[in-house]
Amino acid sequence: METASTIILIGSSLLIVSILTSYLALRIGTPLLLIFLGVGLFAGIDGVGGISFNDADSAFLIGSIALAVILFESGLDTKLSSYRAAAWPALSLATFGVAITSGVIGVAAHFLLGLPWIESFLVGAAVSSTDAAAVFFLLRVGGITIRDRVRSTLEIESGSNDPTAILLTAMLVEAALHGWGTPLELAGFLVKQIAGGAVLGVLGGAVLAAFINKARLDPGLNPVVTLAFALFLFAGTNELGGSGFLAVYAAGLVAGNVKLRGALGLRQFHSGLTWLSQIVMFVMLGLFATPHDFGAIALPALALAVLLILLARPLAVWLCLLPFRFSANEKTFMAWVGLRGAVSMLLALVPILGGLPGGQVIFNTAFLVVIVSLAVQGWTIGPMARWLKLIVPPRRGPVERFELELPGGADQEMVAYTVHPKSPAARGQRTPRFARPSLVIRDGRVVPLHKARTLQAGDMVYLFTPPSQLPLIDKLFAESRPLDQDDRAFYGDLALNPDATVEQIAEMYGLPLSLANAQRSLRDLLRNEFGGACELGDRMRMGGVELIVRDMQDGQITSVGLALEPSAMDKARVPLFQGPERLWQTILSWWSKRSFRRWQRRETRRERLPARALEAPTLAGKEPERLEG
């Protein structure tokens, strides 16, 4: 009894310390996941706590459960609409990108750490995947507002690249213990893991959604059902030979994109559970680490971290995103947001569980690489996004949105706004019927509706509305202000009707006109340019100006911006990550300059030769024959 109480006391104390230090970390901008890891180190065998925890099996079990919970919540919060714009680039990074990173770091680890080739590539496989917990937290909770296509690519990659890294790790450990199988066996293993995980995950997500909607359990039971089902699916898929991590992510993705009873409560529950899982996983891995062993591999591990951040990840991003339309600055940002986290350390436990001689070295190396990644990249994501000019200017929107479950399937939401001093409502504009609030709170007190007909700046208003009317209500209660310099750089100087034709705009602003596009509307022109998957901020050049997707609603362009003097937003801050066309132009330019320099050197040598060396040879003193014509 005393032992159980002691364990519970220690565990709860570590959780409390993690939560309290996270509050301080938010004030000074420290990456929270690094704080959780530091709490584990502080309480570990070489820290003040002196807790000895070296059970690799328990660490892997707890970490796997926590990661399954995190991946399920990641899928639950990912909209399928994100996949339309970002699926292929994200999946390219999640597969080929992982393989490229593993190869580069594996080769470097062989020479820096002196490990055998298979164990060296195990180091590469362990640190090859970006961490879903770290990326989701820093992009969603960190307040970094970037374009949806970039954000979705990073989030989908971080949620889907774990299975690839896990497969590589499992294959390499199996090869180290029993030798390489035949190519057919390896291909069968990969297909079984990927196909099995994807199929069972999709089916499981559909079954889970149908059960919750039809069973109509007590609302308090729904979160318990989703958690139990997610863990059952994770373990069952693993037992059948598929990838449990891929299955649980796919199940969350399917369940999160259909109408679920109590969806808001489910998301809140899993969000809190994900926080708990992150804290438990990072603190536990900090406890498992042995800092007194770090000295022997500190310099090689630091070198590998630098190579990962500055070479392996950028190379993988550049090669994988060559076929896709991302600017050089966006590729630079995606290369920088290759954060490593608990997944890398969890994978580094697999060689220890397999009994490989270099297992502890692999774990210690991965641990140090994760610390460097969280400290360097995690601390600088915000400044990097601002330096690359990728921050999207804030848009109007409600303070809070509450999904409601009403009888008869009525599609309504309750939204809350704080009336902005410069909004039309605060300036006395009459509130239309569909936007009249149901509740007004002024100075912390509820004001009767008949006394609050004239709204004031700072009022908190609550109203019921269908989601389709939110853009109209935004314009009424939110700030109505002229565009500042940052807004103009992103959205353009003027707003155009998307139904205007290219010919009309060309005549109005004296732009070059392509007869093939003359009768196209601006909306069709932009959709054709971006393959129908437009998003805010997409821009295309038209003579000396730029057309920009300025506003969208339900996937349709509702306003087009015109930048009269195209800004330097797309000017590459780092002269790397060029697309195929620019790369080909660079190669041609380099080849032309090289050929010109060779010709110059040839001409210079000819000028320096004696005059007699340039004369034609004569035979027996005779003049050389002249060729006529």
From TrEMBL:
**A single cellular component GO annotation:** plasma membrane
User: Where in this chain does the record put each RCK C-terminal domain?
Assistant: 401-479
Keywords associated with the record:
Antiport, Cell membrane, Ion transport, Membrane, Plasmid, Potassium, Potassium transport, Transmembrane, Transmembrane helix, Transport
Q: Which GO terms describe its molecular function?
A: antiporter activity; monoatomic cation transmembrane transporter activity
Say where the protein is mainly found: membrane
Q: Which organism is it from?
A: Azospirillum baldaniorum
Q: How does it sit in the membrane?
A: Multi-pass membrane protein
SMART domains annotated for this entry?
Answer: CorC_HlyC
Q: Which PANTHER family match?
A: K(+)_H(+) ANTIPORTER NHAP2, NA(+)/H(+) ANTIPORTER 1
Q: Where in the cell is it found?
A: Cell membrane
Q: What's the name of the protein?
A: Na+/H+ antiporter
Q: What is the lineage of its organism?
A: Bacteria, Pseudomonadati, Pseudomonadota, Alphaproteobacteria, Rhodospirillales
Give me any GO biological process, just one.
Answer: potassium ion transport
Superkingdom of the organism of origin: Bacteria
- Transmembrane segment boundaries: 6-26, 33-53, 59-76, 88-115, 121-143, 164-181, 193-212, 219-236, 272-291, 297-321, 333-355, 361-381
Q: Which gene encodes it?
A: cvrA
Spell out the InterPro entries in the cross-references.
Cation/H_exchanger_TM, Na+/solute_symporter_sf, RCK_C, Transptr-assoc_dom
